[in-house]
Amino acid sequence: MIQQAIEQVLAHGDRAFVPYIMAGDGGLEALKTTILRLQEIGVTAIEVGIPFTDPVADGSTIELAGQRALQNGTTLKSVLATLASFAEEITVPLVAMTYLNPILAYGAATFARDAKQAGIYGVIIPDMPLEERDIIYSALQQEEIALIQLISLTSPAERIEKLAAASEGFIYAVTVNGITGARSNFANELEAHFAKLKAASTIPVLAGFGISTPEHVKKFASFSDGVIVGSKIVDALTNNDWTTIEALVEASKK
User: Domain with 190 in it: what CATH number?
Assistant: First the structure.
């Protein structure tokens, strides 16, 4: 469903826009309001972050949001239960961004079953290398949940080919070397890097990490299939700043 949702947007000449939100930041009771509002303003899919005590990929904005969510008592189980409570109202595919330990503690098969009931159509596990994917892959496959791979700027050609072949739904193309967070500058060779990724892939390629302005969205939309925006969305939600969010989404339209 994720790939189809992105391809539908591309067919209209637009680019995919996927906001990242931290589940439980502001309380789990805010999750329904946020997701329904995001789909109302035209996002393609929503990446739902699961708070974790030791996040390796998160910059300060998302790490602090995760800490607030954990202080609110948020768990993977409570997030999935909350999402399931209004799943019939969710019209865009959800992607869970979580780390491996919470899934192992949950049980792979049980997690996959509950995730499907919660409207999750894809999973990103940044601390799980491709070689370890069998830990979870069959359980996800059983529920038709895509296992999305991240590809870094430093990945050699052979590694890109392996990751592109294994990724489902879309490729998460990391646009910076380092952790998440708003940036003002990006590497000059990005366009050539994305050309390599698109040549290696049969599924959409989305850009993520550091994208924080409408200008960034338009820049990446010119050579990718869409963008994932995290820290800026998290900041805007904290400040109830929907004007900023709407401007970012609008920048992905033709």
Answer: 3.20.20.70
User: How many domains, the chain?
Assistant: 1
Check if 134 is active-site. no
Per the annotation, the verdict on 225 as an active-site residue is no
The catalytically annotated residue of 25, 58, 63, 225 is: 58
pLDDT tens readout for residues 26-46: 999 999 999 999 999 999 999
94-97 and 226-229: which strand pairing? Answer: unpaired
Q: Which amino acid is at 109?
A: A
- Determine which helix (DSSP H) or strand (DSSP E) holds 20, and give its type and residue range: strand 16-22
Three-class DSSP category at 13 = coil
- Within 10 A of 205 (CB to CB), how many other CB atoms are there? 25
Give me the catalytic one of 7, 25, 29, 47.
Answer: 47
Would the pTM of this model clear 0.90, i.e. be above it?
yes
Tokens of 146: 């895509």
Distance in angstroms (rounded) separating the CA atoms of residues 135 and 55: 20
CB-based contact 223:194 (threshold 8 Å): yes
Cα-to-chain-centroid distance, residue 212: 15
pLDDT, tens digit, 9 for 90 and up, residues 41-62: 999 999 999 999 887 767 789 9
Pick from 6, 2, 3, 4: nearest CA to 252: 6
Contacts of 128 (CB under 8 A, 6+ apart): 100, 135, 136
| Residue 84 belongs to domain spanning | 2-250
